[in-house]
Design goal:
Number of strands: 9
CATH superfamily: NAD(P)-binding Rossmann-like Domain
Strand content: 5-15%
Shape: globular
Radius of gyration: 20 Å
CATH topology: Rossmann fold
Helix content: 40-55%
Distance between the termini: 58 Å
Order of helices and strands: EHEHEHEEHEHEEHHEHH
Largest sheet: 7 strands, parallel
Strand order of the largest sheet: 3-2-1-4-6-7-9
């Protein structure tokens, strides 16, 4: 199989780092972005000029375009573009500040959008390429205490599904990766937390217990590397794919509930049409 050139955001830890290592270990090359490229020093020592570290804050649109151009100029092309940079904002909807909401969208939605826009002219011109958008089971369902994170991933899902239709004529693929709970620091050091309201203490406790049950058996980020390689090597990759064994059960229950409710209220739907 021909060697691939990857562009991956958020490679300092978690999925981004593990996927970059997996790509490099099999002989591919990676443009690896991080807020602090010092975290990539060991990979540079190990893989030499097959990794291009790029310091990047994905919320900076101009810097996003410059980073993609730098990668293309260095490697000559891009085959796989992975929008992985992101974080979880915890807090009930009532508790969130305007700044917290805007920053969540700046990273999780606009960061991915700017990188996507920057890469598309190169992918269209070469008539190939694969855009990987790291979403979440929270991108198709929603859970208390991470509602604004859910909203950001739903936005990512929406524009990416439209994008897949727009770029298909140019030979470009789009895949939304939707992980369940994984043993990363998404809910730890990387997370941000709104100031809780005392009035919501009891429901916060219930939300915490519900979250524990959802992530009782977290996946291994290292193991996910084999899965992402399988996706990018597929001749016809999926538009959406779950990572982990539990998301499919959440999705089935959620979608069954939606369909049942829509059908229950179909008479109202028809009434609205006149």
């Amino acid at each position: 199989m021909a060697q691939k050139i990857w562009f991956i955001t958020g490679t300092s830890r978690g999925f981004g780092r593990e996927w970059a290592i997996a790509a490099l270990e099999r002989g591919d090359s990676v443009a690896a972005t991080a807020r602090d490229t010092a975290s990539l020093g060991d990979l540079v020592d190990r893989f030499g000029d097959r990794i291009l570290p790029i310091r990047l804050d994905v919320t900076d649109r101009e810097a996003d375009f410059a980073a993609v151009t730098e990668a293309v100029n260095y490697f000559g092309r891009l085959d796989v573009v992975v929008n992985n940079a992101g974080y979880g904002q915890f807090g009930f909807i009532e508790e969130l500040s305007e700044q917290e909401v805007r920053e969540q969208f700046e990273t999780n939605v606009f960061g991915a959008l700017w990188i996507t826009q920057a890469a598309l002219p190169y992918l269209r011109e070469q008539g190939s390429g694969h855009i990987i958008q790291v979403s979440s089971i929270g991108g198709i369902s929603a859970f208390q205490n991470i509602g604004i994170y859910n909203a950001s991933k739903w936005a990512l899902e929406g524009f990416s599904q439209a994008l897949a239709q727009e770029v298909a004529p140019f030979g470009v693929k789009v895949t939304l990766v939707e992980p369940g709970g994984f043993d990363t620091d998404w809910g730890g050091a990387s997370a941000r937390h709104a100031t809780p309201l005392p009035e919501l203490e009891a429901v916060h406790a219930a939300a915490a217990e519900a979250r524990k049950s959802r992530v009782a058996d977290p996946g291994d980020p290292k193991a996910s590397a084999a899965a992402i390689l399988r996706v990018v090597d597929a001749e016809e990759p999926p538009l959406r794919v779950f990572f982990g064994s539990t998301p499919i059960q959440v999705a089935k229950a959620d979608y069954a509930s939606r369909i049942a409710e829509w059908e229950k209220w179909q008479d109202v739907s028809e009434l609205a049409q006149g």
